[in-house]
User: Fold this.
Amino acid sequence: MNTVINTARLALLAALTLVAVALVGVSTARADTGIPYSPDAPRTGDTVAFDGSSACGTGVVVCRWDLDGDGFGNNADEPRSPRVAHVFGSPGPHVVRLLADGGPVLGTTAYEVTVSVADRPPVAAILAPAKAVIGRAVTFVSLARDPDDRLASESWDLDGDGVFDDARGPVVKRTFTRSGRKTVALRVVDASGAVDETRATVVLAPARPSPLSPFPVVRVRGELLGAGIRVQRLSVTAPRSATIDGRCRPSCGAALRRGGTGGTVRLRRFERYLAVGSVLELRVTAPRRIGKFASFRVVGGSRGYVRKDACLAPGRTRPVRCGR
Ligand SMILES: [Ca+2]
Ligand SMILES: [Ca+2]
Ligand SMILES: [Ca+2]
Assistant:
């Protein structure tokens, strides 16, 4: 009896063992770094080829891949070929899994490999004007970009000392006080710690002076008289900020200087007889403004005098053609 019972127990135990072996065969899961891939050290954007032909060898019915690390069940990244390719968009470790399904006999075997994907560095770029004016804020814009992750910082060296401690962020402003070439630099760091730097040069110059406004007007009225002319009326209309300088040579009236008057001013000192050869010059000026020059050279005859009108650059006495 015991022999029968023991025989039956042994038979039951053997059957259970077979079932257990079969179950183990179905659910076998084996971590394996043996999925070959190329290139060995890929960077973001590279096409990485995985070769599962060994894992998906004889007896394997279906091979399924999880290439984006979010598990199986996403058909988009589950090609069923032994050899597949994938492009990783972000740097860092990426886990790739392969399920080799051998059906009821061989079961399913899981493979896994971690691919270390290298970062691509950021690219620094500056948008800046080539020329700028002293005393006015200049805007600098970072056009930096990174091909595979975010920018962690954008820092600026705006005073040219080589230290990127003057401003942070994608848009910064700086006002310069001296003329000449100024070099600014931008340093960008991506989330992976990669760095890039670039520079830009701006030529600083003083602001172009603007003319006195309203621009002065010189009016003269006279009559031909013998070997000269008699100036009957000489006036200057100018803004209050202007100063009027007048002189007549060789000896036709003392120099005149008048400022802060504004409106129309008569220059009676020169309302007199001027002999041939006399030259009367008027300069109407103001600081940092383009001024007015007018001269009258007495030539006699039927013409009486020759008038010349011109402009004066700030701080200069030599007349120049207006608009230069
Ligand atoms: Ca997936
Ligand atoms: Ca990067
Ligand atoms: Ca600096």
